[in-house]
Amino acid sequence: MNDLMNISSALANSDLFKSLQETTDKLAGGGGDYKRISLKGSKFRLVVGGEQVGKPRTDSLNIVIVEAAELSRTYYEGDYDPDNPTPPTCWSADSKKPDDRVPADQRKSENCKDCPMAIKGSGQGQSAACRFSQRLAVALDTELDQDEIPVYQLSLPAKSVFGAAENGHMPMQAFGKMLKTHKAPAIAVVTEMYFDEDSDTPKVFFKPNRMLAEDELKRVVELRDSEQVKDALVMTVSEADGVAPAVVNEPEEKPKAKTKAKPKPEPEPEPEEEEEVIEEPTKVSKKAEKPEVDIDDDLAGLIEDWDE
Prior knowledge:
Blueprint: H1 2-5, H2 9-12, H3 15-19, H4 21-28, E1 35-38, E2 44-48, E3 51-57, E4 60-75, E5 90-92, E6 131-140, E7 152-157, H5 158-161, H6 172-181, E8 189-195, E9 204-211, H7 214-221, H8 227-234, H9 237-240, H10 298-304
Parallel strand pairs: 1-7
Antiparallel strand pairs: 1-2, 2-3, 4-5, 4-6, 4-8, 6-7, 8-9
């Protein structure tokens, strides 16, 4: 034990030593240093390794959208206990088919469009039990000057993704269309994220705050191919928080022509971490095309005149 405590500070702080820490994090059962932004309770909470850091905020948060995943789906079976988070029963990274890591006996269908949990009315009220969401990899405006810019996962519930702009308040898809109209890459803009005060469940809007300086943009662009960003776009919230999967060996079995488990009667699922109850959108927009790199000069004026 004493030998462990006598590791030289030079070795402990070396890049090599830090790169070997991931396995220890897994053995310890924690979420490592994975970072995410939670919208729980309509407050912005920074979560690192499953633990909230700092005080929650209710006003706004300025972020840079480094990269975005396709629309995804997540289904929880049974009662949800916020004090004992569990992995989702089934999930899809592309809203088309279950993720390869979902055990065969937990899948309700081999494709999302035919899944009984994706039908309106299968969840609370007229909502579907399997819900749309979209994961973003973001950086905080206040941390752009750090030597290593931290990347956070932001999982947006459907109400924060779909919908038209109203009185200048834009959900994510409407905000993306506005940026595309002005030929402004999302990664080149500091985006202000704020809550809809009239919504009973966490719902956020987006608006442009400022353009990144050239040196800031170069550093943020370098993040796009990093492991931080890849993890943020692929991981479920429970994985980021270090919650062990319910089944770890099932997906390894090769013979897929095994039993197709019939769906069990579904208890009414509780809302997931964001605690929102939403109606399914009647139409799912395709993934937005990547905006062109040249920025319309009108965007700077738009940002200045945004607040009427």
